[in-house]
Amino acid sequence: MLHVLFGPLSRQQGSKLKSLRVKYIAFAKDTGAWPLIPTKAANLFRYVLWLPQHGIQSGWKGVMNYVTAICNWNREMGFPDPREDVAFYWARLRHNFKRLVVVRHPAMKLPLRPEMLDAMALDADLSNDEDLRDTCMYFMLFFAGFRIGTVTDSPHALRFEDIAFLPELAQCDKVLICVRSSKTRPRAAGLPFWTAINRQPGLRFCPVELLQAHFIRAYRQRPDANLFQTAAGAPLPRRYFNTVLRRRLDVAQARFPAGVRFDLSRFSGISFRKGCLSTLGALNVPGHRLADHADHADVASSRIYTVDTVSQRAGNSDLIASAF
Questions:
Q1: Assigned domain for 38 exists
Q2: Into how many domains does the chain fold?
Q3: Are residues 35 and 118 in the same domain?
Q4: How many CA atoms lie within 13 A of 19 on its CB side?
Q5: Helices (H), 145-284
Q6: Whether residue 275 is found in the same domain as residue 181
Q7: Cis peptide before 38, with omega less than 30 degrees from 0?
Q8: Following DSSP, what letter does each residue of 116-131 receive, concatenated?
Q9: Given this model, what pLDDT does residue 22 score?
Q10: What CATH number is given to the structural domain containing 42?
């Protein structure tokens, strides 16, 4: 029976698959949604609405992990994907779910602030390869607004060949960075995104100088190697990245006034991107420039970081008042 439910998979794969399928079995027991296989489309719709009320609080993305597991289970057993015959209604469900289903999200990650980056850099020993690597990563992520996948074990990770120092490495005023793929930009599309960082001589820690130093120390004549690696030359695991970041933030707290403490669990790789865009938004950079800097698909994704439109709305009250 277990072999039928979970298949001939590795222990890790089997454990994940078990949790996904057991959730549907619990749903069926709770609601009488039988048979399990083949799954009726109506039961799949009910399952989508049941999940947020039973522990799945990560929105549509989390729900889809469970739904996809059940649809794949149907195919493994020789039945069609139950969504295929109701494609129109499934698209409507997806649209309305995001607008109408209340999801209690876990605590959102917080943005990092410039003073937090400075504090971590002050505690780093830049003659140490790992300290230089991490400090360089942090400032690059913050200034470019990159996602964590550009520096960790991801298909989107930057390589040495993606970095260009202008006019040259030794005398560099600007770094060009080519993002060949990202979360929203498939590599197969062949549409890379270019961004750049200028030298900042007025800063104690300049992102361009840090990139120069890291490149000179870490490059081993392998252009296709990941720009940031472990001491053993392997890609940086995401969990390792977050663990080290929180450890460095914990140490950096000592540089802040007494009583200032960080909730370390609220910071992760996304905190650099949020910090970058929040900083630009607080400086009244308009939404279309934020969208361009972040490589957002549309300006709507950038509006949460802007404050310029709020000021403009306040100004609208003066126009309304003039009509009285």
A1: yes
A2: 3
A3: no
A4: 8
A5: 207-218, 238-252, 270-282
A6: yes
A7: yes
A8: HHHHHHHTS-TTSHHH
A9: 93
A10: 1.10.150
pTM here is 0.72
pLDDT tens column, 145-190: 999 999 999 999 999 999 999 999 999 999 999 999 988 787 767 7
The b-or-e profile of 232-270 (16+ CB within 10 A means b, else e) is: eeebbebeebbeebbebbeebeeeeeeeeebeeeebbbb
Shared-domain flag, residues 147 and 217? yes
CA distances for 292 relative to 115, 257, 296, angstroms:
25, 36, 7
Distance between CA 219 and CA 64 in Å, rounded?
Answer: 41
Q: Are residues 92 and 12 in the same domain?
A: yes
Query: Is the bond preceding 235 in cis, omega lying within 30 degrees of 0?
Result: no
Q: Cα separation of 290 and 307, whole Å?
A: 12
Confidence of residue 280 (pLDDT cuts 50, 70, 90): very high
Helix axes 129-144, 238-252, angle to 10 degrees: 90
Domain assignment of residue 267, yes or no: yes
Q: Which residue has the tokens 């942090």?
A: 138
* Burial of 108 (C-beta count, 10 Å sphere; 0-12/13-18/19+): exposed
Domain assignment of residue 217, yes or no: yes
Q: Indicate whether 304 and 255 sit together in one domain.
A: no
Least confident piece of the model among 45-49, 64-68, 308-312: 308-312
Answer yes or no: do 150 and 67 share one domain: no
The sign of the dihedral angle between the CA atoms of 14, 19, 22, 24 is: negative
What CATH number has the domain bearing residue 129?
Answer: 1.10.443.10
Q: Can you read off the two tokens belonging to residue 118?
A: 């400075």
Which residue range is the domain that position 147 belongs to? Answer: 114-283
Same domain, yes or no, for 247 and 299? Answer: no
Residue 108 maps to a domain? no
Q: Which residue has the tokens 């607008």?
A: 99
Residue with tokens 């400032």: 139
